[in-house]
From TrEMBL, chains A, B, C, D:
One of its GO terms (biological process) is dGTP catabolic process. Residues 49-174 form the HD domain. GO terms for molecular function: dGTPase activity. The lineage of its organism: Bacteria, Bacillati, Bacillota, Bacilli, Lactobacillales. This is HD superfamily phosphohydrolase. Pfam families: HD (PF01966), HD_assoc_2 (PF19276).
Length: 437, 437, 437, 437
């Protein structure tokens, strides 16, 4: 029974779960922030993947309890809940994020790592403590748990608990991120949703009378993406981080070169793309920031400056561009170049689609992700066909595309540059109300 | 206007405050946890000193607003609030913790650093960004702000806002730690307390009709200390951390010895007690845990094992002892030694007084720390003389003394040791219900 | 300073406001429930119009404070806030509902009263305590306050504080009704909305960067209407109440007839439609339920039965019908008649439009009700043109039409009737999943 | 599944419970406020005994669930929980307050009614709907449920769920009253307390490791009594109510006298102390206030004035007196008499002990009310012997004694009286800081 600010308490009822929490692979998650660079925008959101993973476990436990009480399977294949599935569901819930590394999305992008493959490896590789705990349950148990996370487990109810449009993962992170950022948008009625969830042959459906609670969850998720996860400053800090790691990779690519005392030894395997699981598990947020602290004093001015910008939170500025105004980017880049910045490291574009947003869209190719409401007579209807609110959001979100550039282009710093150089004025003429015009 | 989970929003109304937040010294606080090892017990409590410092600022801002609205000074020396003091109060509030390093209490103890002296240095040393921002306000301003934190500033109202029995610092950390741990004990009615606070000649008093709100704050503080700050597992992890740093200091004391690639270069100045401000400011929680990750592979078995115990959260066990049962400790230590543990590194004692607990005690020598209630006719009465609840707590808390020892003494691990060695049985006979008997 | 569960505290800063609260007309609001029959569905929602009125006052006070701090008028006609308008705004906010009687909507419908006209009368009629307090401010002050409520006051900023798409009235009742019902749908970020509100020439606009908070408010309102205010059981209890009062009016229409000891003397003026203000102010929820308790024993079986159904909460059942299935109603009514019920008193239809729903629709004829966002350059854009969420809701809500009938038609009570009478079976064949088919 | 603001949802799992809620006796509780006159001080606290009764039911249900899961009885007499007791516990929880009438404490005092006896009567008298529902469970079931409420039921676990120092009744009202008043004092960790509650042979104990949660509950209760339940203005309104009913009883004592149209027919049985259960069940808060509205126009000036003071909330003022200053009361009364007030109706004294406060005192004669903590080895220790906080409160609270008098004595109203009459000045000389001196 662990105290938790979101779920009040987290109830541990199996020895296996306790042992998994106590593995070094799971404890490592304490050192990896859940929200990455978004914590640099929402200062309360310093919680980690450790905390979130416990929450996903707890929601899954509650789902199992509800299913067991209200929908216990009587005969195999009746589409109801077989409580012997509980342990595999709970383990998958707890471990679903265990392969994440520091600042996952950016790190993966630069070093071609794959947190899903690593998750599977941590579960199934006999060298890990996690594997040892799982193996004690049964020889195939590690693979079973991994297959739930990989969505290949035969029982769709178990798979959908952990990954579907309304799963324990999303429900926990929305509530938790809302709690720690202090926003109110992410809240929805978890109790009610759990109450109207029900197993059926093809997975999990929701009783029709719970439609409003489901609707509210979808709207909350939409708002959290728009306001927290896609925040321009958070995306800007990710741009800096990516460029910083790219620069480091370039500089340290020659392992033979003497790199001196403060070399980033733990990153070398990644610079050379020759890492194993053990190398990966040594990394956490603190490892990266410790190297960045070293690099502040690097003789490479770009590495040093980008380290400073990341550690001291000096975001790039950004402006929205459209397919129409995109043509202006080369001109803007040339002005930035003239102002003395290497545009490879000091500009970038991204759109909010780069992030793993999964707006609810029943027209997508994976039909399992639909949210099905079950009417009193057992008939299923897809949510967006009965909810005007959800229908309004479905498949329509377009996000924004942004061009990132140094703040100095609009606030040139006296002393360093000629404030009256016409390039600044020229640059600013192309911006209006945070848009490129 | 920053969103904050505890105060809803934090309002920044001066350019100086914004500039201070943007200094590298202040941003560093994002990488230092507020609760240190307690976050290993209360998993939600991963918030940092950065977040807390903003909260102290915000409460101070609200106090100033209330004082300005309701008790504006008309003539010098009338004991009311002179709003020209606002900026020095706000800066002191924001910066009061800026000298803290990683796991401050333990770190200070091992390396004889002093976070208060370092705070003063960060404010007044011309090399820091903080000093530059403050100096721009006025040549003496850095020293003024430092003197508020050092309690030597002439206006006691300003000093007491930041440090007294009911100050912005304590009020923020109680509310914030309660919020992030998910406990309910730390909550009290901040709005009401701010409303009944009032300036007078000797500092800050409280209107008599707010007694219950003040009483509730005192009780909340008492409960938070008993349940969060003095938690035995948190203290146990501090013991491990202290021994780990001591061991490292011992091993790395000879700087000439070749320490190989992964040596803790950033800690060398501290091992040799020859550090300057810049050395200090390079450290954060991540630096320490990164070195611990290196040390896991150390050839020194104690350094390696303690690193593992800290990173993977393997607390020592503990038992309460009294002045009577204290005599048993040598015997217990000798059994632990026999079981193969170096007792210098694997046992310890501490009592909850080691922590900076400041139970409200009007009989202490610093009379300023009394809480004074002001009756309608201006008369002052000390809180514990009118509140039976506070009176009950005042000066009576005794805490507990604990002996820490390896978990293996009560749960010997099969494979490593002879489970039937009589020393384990012998050891356990001296324990009952977490007490040494 | 009154403690309030929604706003924490309500600050009274003018003697006039305190005096208005202490009038008998305002105290009467303590005896009139805010939500009428909805409190019979959401049992926590037993709060009154008194409490809500204080909340509207408090929000208005906060708006005035924000406007005064951030947008103080410098010269007449500059479109900013003139704080001399504060008192008239506060009084209008506090008194905007003072003309409400018990179960207003139903009562008005049956007795042709008009709470808006009565509000104006209470403010301007020299016999009331409210008028006396207002008149003490200035001879025209009562009329000024009344004109704010009637939307004829010249300053549109003051009018829109109290009545517009996002006014103090709606913001308080959404938050308060959500709090007391225990739903989470009604919550939105009041602090943020107040912060982005700003005066301009034509009234009140919102800074563009607050769009998401405004959007969330609109969605919350939509959800509260769908789930709380339009709840079918609440509407069913209103149907019973209306029929009960109609029956009483019929029975007691002859004042000469001897009605015995327990006659509803306080209602006679309304039965005869010859009431004055004093008659009206004697009524409250308790008056009605006291008469209903008397009428339980009435010799008129319909009056007695409907009194019982209302007091003991025996709602009629209901089913949705459409323009297509509407043709079935005569048949259903005839079956109900056959089962022994007077269909005039035991059936009804209504749709959720009967309730004062004000879905945000910028295409409506009253252009003032648009929500305008102000961009950084002062340009105004209407909310639904930039928010896909709001656009989705705008003017599209259609509600439902329901037919109400006695529960006995689907659950005939043994003993009273012939359970095997084919009319029950026949009736039920036309219903499926709460719809008429 | 009913939505509840305090417990989120209330789960109805037995048909009997639903049927009990639907009885007219239980629905009547919707019209009786939980806090009586305290709602005139804390305006949000307008909730009723209906709502509270549902909450007590829900907490009891959760206790039963916990007991069943964690402490199921294996053999008769093993001191664990026999789940066949569930239904009697739930019914007793739901119905424990069903005998309450309007403003119970005052009403009982004036009319010598006894809500406990009436509760028993409602349960066991065959004329009530409640009795009919209970009897359907078993012929002795009504008596069994009644005996739980009367504490004579043989199983002490069931009795203590409903009435003991930490029972479902107190836990619900503290949380609920705190929620609706908006105070924070009444909150405590219900989940944790339920988790550490456990059955044993002599009733219910608490696991030792839950001590802090129990302690916090005791402190919260203490604070709620001091700040909400003993509030002087609430007690003052009770004084007015008592005098008003006394006066009415006097005036209407002669039933033969013609009392005109607006006579309080429903109260006659009580004026003559010849009432039966049916008479009692016709009364609610609204009945009384409706008569008070009638009496406003009474020709008896005291009845009329007290009705006005109660309905329009014009509390008497009060001052604290001690055993020393008690001697001043005759003098003060004579001055009040001189000022034209009938002191029998316009003055009173009471102390906070008049209210049913049950400060936790293990020295009281009823040993069952002790709170026992169970150590790991099964040993029981009484709470105040191990908690310094609880020890501080135990049996030490003394409350205050107050003298109530007309506000006009300190704020004489111009026009009515001679403001310069020396009696006012004389009267005020005996008061200082709300104390009689």
């Amino acid at each position: 029974m662990l105290r938790d600010p979101v779920h009040n308490y987290i109830y541990i009822q199996h020895r296996v779960i306790l042992d998994l929490i106590n593995t070094k692979e799971f404890q490592r998650l304490r050192r990896i922030k859940q929200l990455g660079t978004a914590s640099l925008v929402f200062h309360g959101a310093e919680h980690t993947r450790f905390t979130h993973s416990l929450g996903v476990y707890e929601i899954t436990r509650q789902i199992c309890d509800n299913f067991k009480r209200n929908y216990p399977s009587q005969t195999a294949g009746d589409g109801l809940w077989d409580d012997r599935e509980r342990l595999v569901a709970l383990c998958a819930a707890l471990l679903h994020d265990i392969g994440h590394g520091p600042y996952s999305h950016t790190f993966e992008h630069i070093f071609q790592t794959d947190h899903e493959a690593i998750t599977a490896a941590i579960l199934t590789n006999p060298t890990t403590e996690v594997n040892q705990v799982l193996r004690a349950v049964g020889p195939n148990f590690p693979e079973q748990v991994a297959s739930v996370i990989q969505k290949t487990y035969p029982n769709p109810q178990v798979v959908q608990m952990i990954s579907s449009q309304i799963d324990a993962d999303r429900m926990d992170y929305l509530l938790r991120d809302a709690y720690h950022t202090g926003t109110k948008y992410g809240t929805f009625d978890l109790t009610r949703i759990l109450r109207v969830m029900r197993p059926y042959h093809d997975g999990i459906a929701f009783n029709f009378n719970g439609m409003h609670a489901v609707e509210d969850y979808i709207v909350s998720r939409f708002q959290m993406y728009q306001q927290i996860y896609f925040h321009p400053v958070s995306r800007s800090m990710e741009v800096i981080l990516g460029h910083l790691l790219t620069r480091a990779k370039e500089i340290y690519s020659d392992p033979e070169a003497a790199h001196g005392a403060a070399a980033p030894y733990l990153l070398f395997p990644f610079f050379q793309h020759q890492f194993d699981l053990e190398d990966y598990l040594l990394l956490d947020d603190g490892t990266l920031t410790t190297y960045f602290a070293h690099w502040r004093q690097s003789s490479d001015p770009i590495l040093s400056d980008l380290s400073h910008r990341f550690l001291d939170r000096k975001p790039l500025k950004s402006a929205v561009f459209t397919d129409q105004t995109k043509a202006k980017l080369p001109l803007l880049r040339s002005l930035i170049e003239k102002a003395g910045f290497n545009t490879q490291y000091y500009t970038d574009t991204n759109n909010s689609y780069d992030l793993p947003y999964d707006a609810y869209d029943p027209k997508m190719k994976k039909p399992l992700t639909q949210i099905e409401l079950m009417e009193r007579d057992g008939n299923l209807v897809e949510l967006s066909t009965v909810s005007s609110l959800v229908n309004a959001i479905t498949g329509k979100f377009t996000g924004d595309q942004r061009f990132f550039f140094p703040r100095e282009m609009i606030h040139p710093e006296p002393g360093n540059v000629d404030l009256f150089d016409p390039i600044y004025n020229q640059f600013q003429q192309h911006l209006h109300n945070d848009n490129i015009i």
